[in-house]
Amino acid sequence: MIDEIATPWFDSALQRLGLRKGERALALEPHRRDVVALRAAIGDEGELTVVVGDPAAAEGLAAMQAPQLRVIAHDALGGERFGTFDAAMFAPHTGPLLPAAVYAELARKNLRPGGRFVVDVPAADMLPDLSAAWSDAGWDEERLAAITGPRDAELTAALGAAGLRAVAGSPCTHVLQASSAAEFVAVFAGDLGLTDDDVIELGKAIVRNRQEPGPLELLVHRAQATGRR
């Protein structure tokens, strides 16, 4: 579902990474449209390696048959070496998220000296409208783990502690447009394990809180950091 909507947080992360034609790039858990954007940035001469945990998703990306694209079906733990890259993009749209220290270790072990990275993950409260509606429903907040990431200071501290250089944090807030509150909730239904009835209930709660039936502009908070090996 998330491939069917704009994802301004990924666009922001890609811009900050500053990929150049012909570079070797590593991406963790990208979606199909992310792969298209990454391939366009590095061109046909560039090499892109993507690592995804879901075998079915990996198979779908491999079926794109894009030039110089290598797809690895693997759940990253942090100690892996997938190659030596000029740049690395760690920008999962939602969880399950890895600890910030794992992203740091992946950057340290897979980038060439001076190689660049960007980490862009859900912030501590990625979707405030959805979280407020969730609280109104009285549901278990542990189920929000997929959209609950580190605080900005925690992210930058973990990256710096791994010996990475020029680490700079940049908390980002984006606007996501939806024709209705239910459409917005449905985007994240799979990640949060929501039924159709859950989507409707949360959508109604957002409308009550916002006092807007739609279309809506909803905030998305992300924790973002860049640096070099």
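the 2nd protein, sequnce then structure:
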Amino acid sequence: VDIDVHHGNGTQEVADGDARILFASIHEGGIYPGTGRAEETGIDGNVVNVPIEHFSASALWRREFERRILPAVETFKPELVLVSAGFDAHAADPLASLQLTEDDFFWATRELADLAGRHAAGRLVSTLEGGYDNGALARSAAAHVRALMDA
């Protein structure tokens, strides 16, 4: 599951032809790398892309995460959850225009950790990706780790 503001085109490339992998990305549409259209669905629907409009705030991002990302992961029943934990969708980040806060990253992490608990014996690996406002990055990463510790 990729929560970075940019689409995970490289990860999608790995998943595209392998139905044993689910790749789900929620990202700002229309920015670098220009991939991640909702119509890109991989083999057997194993790719879920959720492009979000510029300047979207928490409510829309969470609604789409609940509507598209979580059900896809729930249905897939992963044995391991990998999270591309980018925090550049934060409102303070200079490289994009989504309006998220560290509370959104806490919430999403907790949701993913709950899924990992139900389907993957709690196995969740998180990799730090983007975040270009140092204060927002620090607060968002701390919120992410707090959610993992609470799981």
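Helices lie at 9-16, 58-76, 102-119, 134-150. DSSP finds four helices and four strands in the chain.
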